[in-house]
Design brief:
Layout lengths: L1 H11 L7 H12 L2 E2 L4 E2 L4 E3 L11 E3 L4 E2 L4 E3 L4 E3 L4 E2 L4 E2 L2 E3 L8 E3 L2 E3 L4 E2 L4 E2 L4 E2 L4 E2 L4 E2 L7 E4 L4 E5 L16
Parallel strand pairs: 1-4, 2-5, 3-6, 4-7, 5-8, 6-9, 7-12, 8-13, 9-14, 12-15, 13-16, 14-17, 16-18
Antiparallel strand pairs: 10-11, 18-19
Length: 181
């Protein structure tokens, strides 16, 4: 009962509070996500988690200087690790839990998603359970990622396929200042 109440409050009230610091406090202390220095989670994000208050079976981690844009879906049930200086565009879906289609009991399987440093995830991309997005990789807008993405590659499409490469040696630092967010 308490988990359902906290999920409701998280997704229908806190996620829409126009004060950045309040949302981050809630995500850290109530959901139990570890959030790094100078990272931002914009309004309207939707969260899935099994147990609040840091008791989720798998960790949810957001590195330093990382931006999660508006209306993303963050499924932490299977574990979610997002590195440093990662840019996540609006309406991206991270899905870490799925039903086993051939299981007679239609059981659920949880697998973590890992996003390494300097990755860029385009708008409305969907990342499925168990994928790793390598360092500096780019996922194009609207892509559906069902397999790991190698470092410094660009993927797109449904399912996501190799489209190109990205230069190595990335050194930028994302710095969002939430004056009005």
């Amino acid at each position: 009962m308490i988990a359902k109440l906290l999920a409701y409050l998280t997704n229908h009230i806190i996620g829409h509070v126009p004060f950045f610091a309040i949302r981050l406090w809630w995500y850290r202390h109530i959901i139990g996500m570890r959030i790094g220095h100078d990272s931002a989670i914009f309004m309207g994000c939707y969260w899935y988690f099994y147990r609040p208050l840091g008791r989720n079976p798998q960790p949810m981690i957001l590195g330093d200087n990382t931006i999660v844009n508006r209306r993303c879906t963050l499924d932490g049930r299977g574990g979610l690790r997002i590195g440093n200086n990662v840019s996540i565009s609006p309406e991206v879906m991270f899905i870490t839990s799925q039903h086993l289609k051939d299981d007679p009991g239609f059981r659920i399987e949880d697998k973590p998603i890992v996003i390494e440093d300097y990755a860029w995830i385009g708008s409305r991309a969907t990342l499925l359970p168990g994928v790793t997005i390598g360092r500096g990789a780019v996922v194009a807008a609207g892509a559906v990622v069902a397999k790991d993405v190698a470092p410094f590659t660009v993927v797109g499409g449904i399912p996501a396929k190799l489209m190109g490469e990205r230069a190595e040696g990335l050194m930028y630092q994302l710095r969002f200042r939430p004056w009005f967010e």
